[in-house]
Amino acid sequence: MQDEPTPTELIKAVADFLRNEITPEIKGHNAFNLRVGINALDLVTRQLAQESSSDAAEAARLKQLLGMQGSLLELNRVLSERIAKGAVDLQTPGLAEHLWQTTMDKLAVDQPNYASYKRELKS
Amino acid sequence: MIEQQLGRCVASWFEGATGVTGAAKLSGGASQETWSFDIVHAGGTTGAILRRAPPGYGASPGRAAGLDAEAVLMQLAYDAGLPSPRVIHVLTPEDELGTGFIMTRIEGETIARKILRDEQFAKARPMLARQLGGVVAGIHSLPSAKLPKLREMNSTKELADMEREYRSFGWPRPVFELALRWLRERDPGPPKEVTLVHGDFRHGNLIIGPDGVRAVLDWEIAHFGDPMEDLGWICVNSWRFGEIDKPVGGFGSREDLFAGYEAAGRKVDPDRVTFWEVMGTLRWGIMCCGMMQRFRIGPDHSMERAMIGRRSSETEIDLLRLLAPRA
Fold first, then answer.
1. Looking at domain B108-151+195-268, which of 1.10.390.10, 3.40.190.10, 3.90.1200.10, 3.20.20.60 is its CATH number?
2. Pick from A33, A37, A83: CB nearest B177
3. Hey, is B84 helix, strand or coil?
4. CB burial string B297-306: b at 16+ within 10 A, e below
5. Which of B95, B150, B200, B295 has CB 3.0 to 4.6 Å from B9, enough for a Cys bridge?
6. Per-domain residue ranges for chain A?
7. Can you give the residue ranges of every domain in chain B?
8. Can you point out the beta strands (E) in B106-245?
């Protein structure tokens, strides 16, 4: 067992330091890079918090949809092949809902401020 | 050092030029650079832009039209009265600056967030879509006899190229598969009329002033193809920067864009435009994935590239909104 603080707590502490103490001191192109870096740390924090439950739910949906077992990557490969071949499409029960849920879970980590995502969250 | 080289170059064709100041690199990868500088002469200074491949980087890669073709296209656009910089010099070997050209610098804004939010553009925003419709129509009407040699593309070839690139990543994306399938089933094939296509007509490549559009830039991926491609590309949600209910660049409606296009004497095919909007959304998504690949295997190990890779999911939600809207 690894000791505390957790990775999430460590990353948050670093991101807050960069955001509050360093950002005011940096100018020019590096200010832009710093913002990108802080965004990356915030993304990692969100992924650490959300990934295990969204991955588990995604895997459960895929097993149901495809009628097979496998790793999340394998299941996504099979789903991709079946969509490419036309074996499943938007008329297939559960496919649209699965793709929507999976995509919403990705946006929640990648880009929760993306306007399309915020709009869909409300609807 | 570049100021001395530019000074020598400018002296050979700009009458009364005494030198060059304020040279600053605006952008540049290994093979292509853009520099801003001022030409000093008795009457004051004249703003100029150098676009070049430095010495040793002759040929342009894959999809690129090439700097010589870019110069010709920009000059043709200028001559046709379209908003465009004027090409004032095409580099020669004696210039020792590589290959490329020098154009007039046009003041204005290219950053989308400023164009969409700053007060100084408030009057321009409502008229931009119609104005740009007219500009695209002008591009599609440039005299074909004078156009340079460019690659010819169509939707079928473009789709095959995108699919090949996506498959090369080896990472499954069910939403992209759905989009590829949707596009293959609706591929409209070659257009009735093949025209010049700008290929990257969107924020970043348009200089906007408080008075409206001032210049179209970056003809790097210009080609011959379906004119509706340019209309679809500027409607891609990724270029709306949050203003998702204004499909044209976050500032205007399709109706205004199409009205401007048709007022200039050309016809819109709205179904083809929609097809190209879906194509464009998927293309940007695949380009984001490509950034991730270059971050991982290329020499540019930048955070920016890496984080753009994480933006491909934005195009997945936009594809779902287009192809499988909820309720």
1. 3.90.1200.10
2. A83
3. coil
4. eeeeeebebb
5. B95
6. 7-122
7. 2-104, 108-151+195-268, 155-189+270-327
8. 195-197, 206-209, 212-216, 223-225
Measured distance CA(B126)–CA(B118) in Å, rounded:
13
> pLDDT digits over A19-72, tens only?
999 999 999 889 999 999 999 999 999 999 999 999 999 999 999 999 999 999
Inter-chain contact A114–B326, Cβ cutoff 8 Å? no
Residues 66-95 of A with CB under 8 A from B: 73, 76-77, 79-80, 83-84, 86, 89-90
Which two tokens mark A77? 């490969």
What are the beta bridge partners of residue B109?
B208
Which of B312, B314, B321 has the highest number of chain A CBs within 10 A, making it the mutation to test binding with A? B314
Could you tell me the CA-to-CA distances from B205 to A3, B217, B219, B321 in Å, in that order?
Answer: 51, 5, 9, 26
B74: phi then psi, degrees, rounded to nearest 5: -65, -40
For residue B6, the Cα-to-chain-centroid distance in whole angstroms is 26
Q: Do domains B2-104 and B108-151+195-268 have the same CATH topology?
A: no
CA distance B23 to B37: 4
Amino acid, res. B63: R
Residue B319 near residue B285, CB atoms below 8 Å: yes
A123 touches chain B (CB under 8 A): yes
**Beta partners for B103?**
B49, B87
Q: Enumerate residues 6+ apart whose C-beta is below 8 A from B126.
A: B251, B252
Q: Name residue, tokens 């940007």.
A: B284
Give Cα B228 to chain centroid, integer Å.
15
Distance of alpha carbon B214 from alpha carbon B211, whole angstroms: 8
Element housing B20 (H / E)? strand B17-28
**pLDDT band of B59, cuts 50, 70, 90:** low
- The tens digit of pLDDT for each residue in B9-45 reads 999 999 899 999 999 998 766 668 899 999 999 989 9
CB B252 within 8 A of CB B121: no
What is the maximum span of chain B, computed from C-alpha positions, in angstroms? 67
Q: For residue B140, give how far its alpha carbon lies from the nearest alpha carbon of chain A (Å).
A: 32
Kindly indicate the confidence band of residue B57, based on its pLDDT and cuts at 50, 70 and 90.
Answer: low
The class of domain B2-104 in CATH terms is: alpha beta
Task: Please indicate, yes or no, whether the overall pTM of this predicted structure exceeds 0.90.
Answer: yes
Bridge partners of residue B34, in order along the sequence: B27, B51
Q: Does A115 touch chain B (CB under 8 A)?
A: yes
Pairs of residues, one from chain A and one from chain B, whose beta carbons lie less than 8 Å apart: 87
